[in-house]
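note to self: dont lose this again. the chain is below, predicted strucutre after it. 214 aa total, dont forget to put it in the shared folder this time
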Amino acid sequence: MRMPTTIALPLIVTVLALAGCGSQPDAEHSGTEAPATPQAPVSPPAHVDPDHPDAPPPVPLAADLTRNEWATAQNKGECAPLVLTSDGGAPAEARRANFGGGWGIAFDTEDVRSAYGVAGPGIVGADRADGQEARLRGQWPYFTMLENLPQPSFAGYGLEGARPYREEVPDGVSENSLAYVHVAGQACTYNVWSRLGRAHLEVLMQSLRPGPKE
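---
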């Protein structure tokens, strides 16, 4: 794994369930004898909630730090910045995290160093291969689509080491949860991690948005 090595301490975090995205209507056809070419449904920008299009966009966490770390990363041309827009109920201080060839942002709570974070690690051969969805589905015990990022974007996740959550600790609290995230148009495999439990990691993943470049 490419996560920073830290000591995990137990912490219970209350998280809120995220609302799902609505589907787009089918394209309409002209009623004339020579119908117009059907138009594909138009998806809203990645930062807009289609269920609440007038709502303000979510506020990114550590946007300036993320931009600065990404701007000096070796892989910046193929691994655009991503930001979290929710702390999952765990306020924390952001700092840079070391990821060889890439960039990373870690968040330290009062009790846990590197409690959670997001990173664009250095690119390896597997990142450039075809069939990324099949790769992550096969590698990780859990899988989810990420509808608030450029499509298709998705993640495989579980305990560090691509292990399932244990029956005796199904919430994963006090263990290291990790997600490998693929974003359409990017070559790197992003890391998102949480030492605060499975539910916390799932909130972080769904809060991901494209980060600022300027």
